[in-house]
Fold this protein.
Amino acid sequence: MNLLLVTGIGILVGCGLWLMLRPRTFELVLGLALLGYGVNLFIFAMGRATAGAAPFVGKGMAPAALARLADPLPQALVLTAIVIGFAMTALLLAIALRARYETGSDHVDGEEPADG
């Protein structure tokens, strides 16, 4: 399971970085979104997400059960990051569409490359 999680994080971050290096603005926005998803998954994985673990401490819990508690802080951080990432993606898409309208090009530098 850990290998699958690490592979998924690596693929998301790798694809995000590759798309961020592309010359088109839509690919840049998509790369930023994928990179954000990879970082969110990494933060969530650091919170020791285990099946069947209690998210809070109850009265009379055994000390052995306290070691298996799920950490709620990474979950709250990821939930907040998802909302902020969605808003950032929407804003970047609006800026990219306006830049395309103003310049007539969707390249990040505003110019089409010269052929040959």
User: Anything to note?
Assistant: The chain has a mean pLDDT of 83. Helices lie at 2-20, 25-46, 63-66, 72-103.
